[in-house]
Automatic annotation (TrEMBL):
Organism ancestry: Bacteria, Bacillati, Bacillota, Bacilli, Bacillales
GO molecular function list: acyltransferase activity, transferring groups other than amino-acyl groups
SUPFAM superfamilies named among the record's database cross-references: Acyl-CoA N-acyltransferases (Nat)
Keyword Transferase: yes
Name of the protein in its database record: GNAT family N-acetyltransferase
Keywords linked to the UniProt accession: Transferase
Entry superkingdom: Bacteria
Domain named N-acetyltransferase: residues: 1-148
Stored InterPro entries: Acyl_CoA_acyltransferase, GNAT_dom
Family matches, as Pfam families: Acetyltransf_10
Length: 163
């Protein structure tokens, strides 16, 4: 079952993100990886800044989460994570399909350029990579990330995006 997460889920969201983000260790630049990958303060800031988390729940246990954030003329998919022991079970695809159906706006997704599994996942689900120049412009416009993250990230768009 997919459901919107609420305040009682914040601890579980935190645990899922930090469990799944261990996949980045040794893959993304060392200066961008730390543990926990996302602090509770950062998570609460994301929620306060409009990221709405949805979770995939089975047997009253959240197994994956994905956020969506309205940015006016686009929606951003943010923080897509599935528990390590639940990967490759279709949870990410179900969450992405659900969230993309929530909006008629173009959807943008940012991820690490070294996270080839994430890029393959989004490409398989109908997203396309934008050019390097467009990536920089989009990350500056719609995200609040440091320049180092911009250097080491990619942006993907759905078919509704027109540059």
């Amino acid at each position: 079952m997919i459901r919107m997460c609420n305040n009682t889920d914040v601890e579980e969201i935190y645990l899922i993100i930090n469990d799944a983000a261990k996949a980045y260790k040794g893959v993304i630049p060392d200066d961008r990886y730390h543990e926990p990958y996302m602090s509770m303060e950062e998570l609460n800031n994301e929620i306060s800044n409009g990221v709405v988390f949805w979770g995939y729940e089975e047997n009253k246990l959240l197994n994956g989460v994905m956020g969506i954030q309205d940015k006016g003329d686009v929606s951003l998919i943010r923080h897509a994570y599935v528990r390590t022991n639940q990967r490759k079970s279709g949870i990410g695809t179900k969450l992405l399909s659900h969230l993309t159906a929530l909006t008629t706006k173009p959807i943008l997704i940012g991820t690490w350029d070294a996270a080839d599994w994430a890029i393959r996942f989004y490409l398989k689900n109908g997203f396309s990579l934008v050019s390097s120049d467009e990536k920089k412009e989009l990350l500056h416009t719609y995200w609040d990330v440091p320049e180092r993250q911009i250097e080491t990230s990619v942006v993907l768009c759905d078919s509704k995006w027109t540059s």
